[in-house]
Amino acid sequence: MNEEKNLKERIEKRIEYFKDYPLDNEIKRALSELGFKKPLKVQAEVIPMILAGKDLIVKSQTGSGKTAAFAIPLCQKIDAELEMPQVLVLTPTRELTEQVKNDFADIGKYKELKCCALYGKQPMADQRKELKKNTPHVIVATPGRMMDHILNKNVKLQDIKYLVIDEADEMLLMGFQEQLEAIIDKMPQDRVTLLFSATMPDEVYYLSQQYMIHPENIEIEPEISNINKIEQIYYAVDGLKKVDFMKKAIEREQPRKAIIFCNTQEQVDNLFEIFRKWDQSTCAVHGGMDQQLRMEKLNAFKRGEYKMLIATDVAARGLHVQGVTHVINYGVPFDHENYVHRIGRTGRVDQNGIAITMVIPSEMDRFHELEAFLGYKIPCKGGHVDRKPKAETGRRNKRERYRVEKRKGQKALVQFSAGRSNSLLKASDFVSAIRGVEGITSEDIGKIDIRETVTNVEILDGKERIVLNAFKTKKIKGKLFRVKKG
Fold first, then answer.
1. Shortest CA distance to 136 belongs to which of 78, 97, 73?
2. Which of 131, 132, 138 is nearest to 160 (CA)?
3. Residues 6 or more apart from 378 whose CB is under 8 A from it?
4. Helix, strand, coil percent values for the chain (each to nearest 5)
5. Is the pTM of this model over 0.85?
6. 403-485 CATH choice from 3.30.70.330, 3.90.79.10, 3.30.70.580, 3.40.50.720
7. Average of pLDDT values for 15-44?
8. Alpha-carbon distance 258 to 346, whole Å?
9. φ, ψ for residue 134 (rounded to 5)?
10. Alpha carbons 166 and 220: distance in angstroms, whole number
11. b/e for 110-142, b at 16 or more Cβ within 10 A?
């Protein structure tokens, strides 16, 4: 009873600085070097709860500071003398796995904590050697690769005290539920389980009910904590002059480090071809690139070897880079929340930032919808006058034929001629391919049902025509499949 009372008092009191938290001096030293002074909202809510040993369900948006919210108290909880895995973090993507592992390593370096990242497209033999020779205190892994190591008896889980399921909604959407449940069944019963998710669909709620003990619920309202430190502007430009206009804007702004966001992989490739001739200090990443090359480019950008990074939202998910002075949107994002996530890459810690969006005439309506979503106007700094749309005619051109009417919540099935018996595709392959279509985000994809010879994918909000049209020519894992409305 006293412990509950003390916990309540500690949370209500709200410690203002990290230096005043009940943390080892080694961890405080690392946090100071990393520039951590005051906890963000999610950190202030979560850290005391984890230190008190509570199971937690945390609803918090990507980029809110949640990785440090669980990494800081878990580094405190780990017994460095016990050379056995004590923390297992499961994440949906290789990039996030590497990012979380690096965060643990940075926070726990003076405590001499050992961490490793396990994900696909890396030799199992190398990972097995690392697990045996350099027994880690913290394992960060994707569910598929973690299950492989468990089945091959490469890892011992009997001393795991903390299980973190990070971005649970994304993992379930990508089809990892079976592996997640199999991994949890292998875990010690006497453990703390921490579940983090941006949204709380029924599948995430079911997971928490099955595997957690009286969890505390924490919901962090979506916000840009650094909004006042980001100057947001847009330029209204002609489509044919957009690249030249953007070059002039970059020359004028002289960014120390910038991320240019594109809506599609094709836009990234095309823009990179132009920019690498114009500025050698430019690199590019997207989901269709070789994994090792993508990681190399991201790490090189973090180290400062490149000044500009051109990327899609998918490739930049979970990307936290210090010192980004500018974020440039090559086009208006289709998902309003992606805009919030993008501009949050700048203006971090004690720095100010600038977010610039290039808007062509056909994107102007979508841009005004974004402003309505944000609740404020973004000032225009130049370019053409906001033109009125052309009057409607009886005929529609090819592009307009596939324009999506807003049908919020409506579901439709899209059927692919690929199933269990005639392909090796997994649910995550369909998710990755469909998200690569311009105008489609994770939120537009519902349940994926892989059957014997076909796969049915639920597409939401009336966007099935975009998907049907795209996959007439778009391949999945290098192969073209027939597609029709289910």
1. 78
2. 138
3. 232, 233, 234, 357, 371
4. 40, 20, 40
5. no
6. 3.30.70.330
7. 87
8. 9
9. -120, 60
10. 15
11. ebebbbbbbbeebeeeebbebbeeeebbbbbbb
Tell me the mean pLDDT in the region 246-257: 90
Rounded Cα–Cα distance for residues 54 and 308 (Å): 42
Contact by Cβ (8 Å): 437, 467: yes
Q: Which residue has the tokens 């412990």?
A: 3
Q: List the domain boundaries for the chain.
A: 2-219, 227-383, 403-485
Residue appearing with tokens 């010192």: 323
Tracing tokens 């697990």 back to the chain, one arrives at: 131
Assess whether pLDDT exceeds 90 at residue 278. no
For 337-355, write each residue's pLDDT tens digit.
778 878 888 876 557 789 9
| DSSP string across 356-389 | EEEE-GGGHHHHHHHHHHHTSPPPEEEES--PPP
| Tokens read off for 394 | 């009886």
Amino acid making up residue 416: F
The yes or no reply on domain 227-383 and CATH 3.90.470.20 is no
Residue 447 in tokens: 């349940």
Tell me, what DSSP letter sits at residue 460? Answer: E
What is the tens place of the pLDDT at every residue in 357-383?
999 998 998 899 888 878 889 999 876
DSSP result, 256-320: SSEEEEESSHHHHHHHHHHHHHH-TTEEEE-TTS-HHHHHHHHHHHHHTS-SEEEEETTTTTT--
Rounded distance between C-alpha atoms, residue 300 and residue 294, angstroms: 10
Amino acid occupying residue 352: N
pLDDT at residue 281 tops 80: yes
pLDDT digit string, tens, across residues 311-332: 987 655 556 777 899 999 999 9
C-alpha separations of 425 from 149, 449, 450, 457 in Å: 21, 12, 9, 13
Strand 380-383, strand 56-59: pairing: unpaired
What is the rounded average pLDDT of the residues 205-218? Answer: 88
Question: Measured between alpha carbons, how far is 316 from 345 in angstroms, rounded to an integer?
Answer: 10
**Residue 350: what pLDDT?**
56
CATH topology of domain 2-219: Rossmann fold (3.40.50)
- Note the residue count of the chain: 486
2-219 shares its CATH topology with 403-485: no
φ, ψ at 439 (rounded to 5°): 95, 0
Tell me the CA distances in angstroms from 270 to 40, 197, 263, 265, one per residue in order: 38, 34, 12, 9
